[in-house]
Please model this.
Amino acid sequence: MGGEDELGSNSLSGDDDSNGILLNDSKAQGRGGYTSSEDPNRTGNPERGFGRLAHQTFHITAENVDAIERHLSKPLFLEDDGSIAPANARMIARLRKALAEGRPIAEADASFYFHELYEADLMDNAGLDYKIAHRIALDYYDVADFTVYHSDVVQELRGKFGSTWSTFWGIGGE
Model:
């Protein structure tokens, strides 16, 4: 991976990163000039890969992981039995493991971390609905939709993900 950055001094950040969200402009515009969910041809944008998060590692905070867990504990995201969706629970566990081991995150873990933080901020503080906040967060970091879940999670929970996820991650059939 590339250079390791501490949150708060990240090269992507134009603000003080006090909220853990890497921001440096007020517009979240994707390729082709589309913003949010306007792109009628969007099918995961696999060509984006890890976008602005590529080739970097990031240290994370327990406070931000807790914020992600609170965000994903909203009724909108819960399973019928009231539990956090399995893919989200596994990604949160991956973040907690990185914290416990004192190691930075990269790639899918970073995509999930920053995406969920920004999505939560847009929903909670800007009043956006989920679909719009979700799309803006993906577009802001210029990441493919498929990067927000690690390949291990996609493989483990293959039945919850479509074949395009397996194709993106190069996961063969069983």
